[in-house]
Amino acid sequence: MIEQTTFSNIEIQNELRKRYGLKVNNIEIVNKGTANIYKIISDKGNFILKEFQSKYLQNDVLKEINAIEYLKENTKIPLPTYLKTNNNEFYFKHKGRIVVIQNFIDGKVFEKNEGNYEQLLESAYYLGQIIKGFEDYHIKDGINITDWYSKKEFDKANKKYDEILEKLDNSDLSNKIKIDILFKKQLLDELSKNKNLKELNNITHKVSHGDYSSLQFIYNNENKIKVIIDFIKVKKLPVVWEIARSYSYIDKEARNGNININNIVEYTKEVSNITDLNEYDFKYLPHVYLIQLARSTFGYSEYFKENVKDKEELLNFAFYRTNICRDLYKKTDEISSKLLEIKGSIKK
Question: Are residues 82 and 121 in the same domain?
Answer without folding.
Answer: no
